Amino acid sequence: MGILRTLLIVLLVILAVRMLRRLLAPRRPTFEDRATPSIEGEEMVRDPACGKYLPRRGALSERVNGEALHFCSDECREAFARGVRALP
To answer: What is the DSSP-derived secondary structure letter of residue 73?
Structure first.
């Protein structure tokens, strides 16, 4: 009986240590956290034509129906105007 009791205690200690590690470990990023990329200190915008993310200051901006849109290139801006989805 003594050996079984010792093994049970060791098993419980191992499980407790693993649970504590998971609780105290830094949280891993989720898909939602990675969905909108960012560069530290700079806002990222998404090109509606190809779906690429780029820094706002490097984007070609245009107002369409009162909404500010940002494009990565003239080709994407023209494709959007034609209603065609550009390839990434």
So the answer is: S
